[in-house]
């Protein structure tokens, strides 16, 4: 009897957790609207764009939508985004949190930030590099 009342009580308690519901994070491209969907939010939802490959290395790009009611938002990736791995973080005011799929922006420009440095050792090495002697092998 006790076991059945415990199971009945546990079944009556339902735990809703914020989840994203998009099945397709492919072909997201700059300037083209993309419908982001979620379910089971405990209050208004905020969407944050994260950049980078894995959680310890995420860069918080921007919270691009705040206090959203309902279960969807149409986002248009801006032209200032570059080619990289991105992720959307969902958070609701009830403390719920979820992540979308990783995605790459289609046709996004690459970030070109390079630094050229030259040292005296590199110049010397470049000036004194010679070709290695060629060897001839004879096979029986």
From TrEMBL:
Cleaved signal peptide residues: 1-17
InterPro entries assigned to the protein according to its UniProt record, in alphabetical order: Kre9/Knh1-like_N, SRP1/TIP1-like
Name of protein: Yeast cell wall synthesis Kre9/Knh1-like N-terminal domain-containing protein
Pfam families cross-referenced by the UniProt entry: Kre9_KNH
Yeast cell wall synthesis Kre9/Knh1-like N-terminal domain location: 26-103
Taxonomy, superkingdom: Eukaryota
Keywords: Signal
